[in-house]
Specification:
Elements lengths: L1 H53 L1 H12 L5 H14 L3 E7 L5 E5 L5 H5 L11 H10 L3 E7 L5 E11 L2 E11 H9 L7 E6 L5 E3 L9 E7 L2 E9 L14 H5 L1 H88 L5 H28 L6 E4 H13 L6 E6 L6 E4 L1 H19 L4 E12 L3 E3 L2 E3 L2 E10 L6 H4 L20 H10 L3 E7 L3 E9 L21 E5 L3 H13 L3 E5 L2 H10 L6 E5 L7 H11 L4 E6 L7 H7 L3 E4 L4 H13 L3
Parallel strand pairs: 11-13, 19-20, 19-21, 21-22, 22-23
Antiparallel strand pairs: 1-2, 1-5, 3-4, 4-5, 6-7, 6-9, 8-9, 10-12, 13-16, 14-15, 16-18, 17-18
Amino acid sequence: MKNFLLLAIACVGVTALFFIDAWLLKDVERKHQEDFLIMSETARIRLENSIQSRFNAVSALEALFIIHPRTKPEEFARFAQSLLEKNPPVRALQYADSQTQVTYVYPPKGNEITITKPMVLITDPKRGPFTRKAIEAKKPSLQGPFSLRQGGMGVVVRTPIFDGDKFLGLAIGVYDLPALIKEAVCEERHAGIIMQLADLNDHVFSGPEQLSGRIYRQIVRVLDQTWVMTSMPMEAKKPPQLPRALTWIFGLAGLTAIIMAISLSRRQTARLEQTVKMRTKELEEANLALARDLEEIQRMEKQLLHAHRMRSIGTLSGGIAHEFNNLLSIILGNTELALEDAPENRESRMFLQDVIAACARGKKVVQQIMRFSRKTPSGKTRLNVGPITTQALKLIRGTIGKGVEFRPRYSPEDGWILGDPQEIQQVVVQLITNSVQALGSAGGLVDVRIYTKELFTPLRVFGQDLPPGKYVCIEVQDNGHGIAPQAMERIFEPYFTTRGFGRNLGMGLSVVQGILLGHGGGIRIESEEGRGTRALCFFPAAEAVEQEEAANGDVIAGGTESILFVDDEESIARTNKIRLERLGYSVTEALDPAKALAMVEEDPLRFDLVITDLTMPGMKGDRLIRLIRKIRPDLKCILCSGYNDAVSDEAIEEIGASAWLSKPAKGLDLARIVRKTLDGVT
């Protein structure tokens, strides 16, 4: 009986252990399968991200030719070398021109065939379809895998380069496929999986040719191609070995063993879940880091493109400013001479004074263009924004229809800030112009307010928080169509517009925001589609000051000295000669700087003062002054220019000039600076 009881207990114990062993085996296999699937998915994502990040070398090459279309071979080589140092899988970088003929290759070693026999990609039977696909889609195209002439397996990325709709060429990268894949999946073999990569036609180009047993297939997307990734675990986990020879003591301990096995299983499950969470978190952080890197690259590309455009605008506006100021100089000089000769109490004097006032306004407009396009520094003074806003409203009223009603609501007491009047006027004009355009042809109401607001807590504006303090707020509100929610996120982007292509495309609110940041303020836009828009511009408030009365000493002092006036514009030279002669000076005009230099060489003591334009054909004014100073070091010189650039005292001294005069100049300003220069007054 006892033996039977012991046998029964032993049978129960062995049976219980058998079922426990079978359950553990199944549980271990299930957890192993979960680990395998997680590792395979992680390997796929890392493979896609790593390959895509290495293709950024071609994107960087594309950005280079967008910004500098005329990149020289040595510049291309230096840039390509820096990219290859950071991207070991890259075999070579190439550039094909707008005819798809390969013109630049780096490195030259190993690419001798391409260098000596430039190929036209679009007509090449092997490369043509991929080239046309990239150009037509305006997106990168991937060709391969295939055997490289230099040896080994590789792929080629071709990215079309467009400036707007103009096709500039192709940025091309040749990649060593084994190195590219090894860099992406080098850690996966140690993580317990074996991987195989093939195309959709089951052509294996990485990993073992055959995989057997438990496998897992996944789709890998690389640019415009689709690959198949097949993975399998390196080895299967085995369940713990349990003893077969059981005794009475082991049988009685069976229940305890079951409880301990259940507890152990729960701990293993918790550890597995923790591992999955950690790996998932690491994957999310890696994806976020990659997204931030891509966003930073795109932001830098936009900045480079924007800087290139602004340099072009600056060059163009500088030439326009020079020509326009020369024309204003002729108009202003002759008008002042005509005003001097006009009889008193004649209506014609009023007409001439209006022309002089218009020339002054034209000079300010040119200064605004130069300040915007070249971002020349401007002086900040204590001012009231009320009169500036009033003047801006007067300017805009003359350019719009009768359907728009302006409602200004502000007083001279409010609105004292420390700022630049031209930039403040630019802000007001931009905001009011936006409101008028939002009203459309139907017209409507534009409400303009100026008031002082004290912040006791930080106020959220676009891109920043304004600290507590006292601010002057310029508020412009309209009852137009408003701004759509999807457009609100982009209204501060340069060259963004909601009015369709070709209409008022420009810097817009991005310039307004930049001006406000430069003044220590901020802008806030509130809009509801169909109900209008309200723009609030905050400037740090300043203490009010009493207005000083204009000085009365507009007495023009003349003299009898001899002056040489040099300018390639005959009208400017003739007008200023008459101006100065009416002041008593003896004036000789020269339209050619070489002839002016010859006059000084012939008789160095003939002239007491030289006034010369800066930009002239054959010889610039600064060089003329340097050559004159070599002949006669004490001869005083005044340099004139219509560019309106700010020139420092150090720059004037380095040129050798005694003073600087911006065109167009009033007769009073010309007389004063000539007299001060001759008298040695600084």
